[in-house]
Amino acid sequence: FRELRNMLKRHPHIGSFPFVTDPVTMTLLGSIARRYLVSLLCIKIGATEILPQEKRRSKTPSELMQRRRSSGTTAALILTGRNESESHFRVSSPLHTTNPLSQMVPSAANDDTFGHQRTLTIAERAGVLNQTIEIDDYAIDAAPFQLVKGTSLYKVHTMFSLLGLHHAYVTDKGRLLGVVSLKELRDTFSDIYVRGAQLPPWRRMR
After folding, report:
1. pLDDT higher at 107 or 4
2. 183 or 124, which is more confident
3. 72-to-11, 78, 182, 187, 189 alpha-carbon distances in Å
4. Are 77 and 34 within 8 A, CB to CB?
């Protein structure tokens, strides 16, 4: 839970995180919505550990599904879990929809977030933070959009446009290599257009 808390604080604008077998094989099993991870942290150690923006977002869960900014490497955003052979996940997860968060977590996650939860002592909180996270199968989206290594830029652009994607995971034989965001794709095309465009006469004369 300590790593989860630090990860959520480091990446406040990422709406979902990749879920892999382990840090070595990095086989992609699916993705997990940020709001589910936030709810886990609240249930375990209370709302005092949640950042102010998370408390505001808890009133409008749809905001948690929007990835406003993509930065950093995917390796810093990895959640590891069970072996692939032990995984039996649903294709669509209720935690990746626009349903209210209060309908998907225990009744403790109501408007006054965990207001009646007993405050943990420093020692108790440290013990909880050292515990291993147990992810429920229903919380995992087993079918996040993936791009195979070597896919052409034109094809990537076409799929993003047709499917309305905000990001896609890049894999090679099931192994997670990274993530491509819509912003990065737009920046790439913008750079191509700038480098390939003809300069106006007044600039060519310089």
Report:
1. 4
2. 183
3. 9, 12, 15, 16, 20
4. no
Average predicted confidence (pLDDT) for the chain = 70
Domain count, the chain: 2
Residue 69 shares a structural domain with residue 105: yes
Angstrom distance (rounded) from CA 84 to CA 90: 14
Sheet of strand 28-33: strand arrangement: 79-80, 16-20, 28-33, 140-141
Residues in the chain, total: 206
Q: With 0.85 as the threshold, say if the pTM is over it.
A: no
Q: What is the CATH number of the domain that holds 149?
A: 3.10.580.10
Pairing of β 175-181 and β 167-172: antiparallel
Residue 59 structure tokens: 């009133």
Contact 61, 49 (CB under 8 A): no
* 79 and 17, same domain (yes or no): yes
Q: Which residues span the domain enclosing 139?
A: 2-144
* Average pLDDT for 7-31: 90
86-108 pLDDT, tens digit each: 333 333 333 444 444 444 444 44
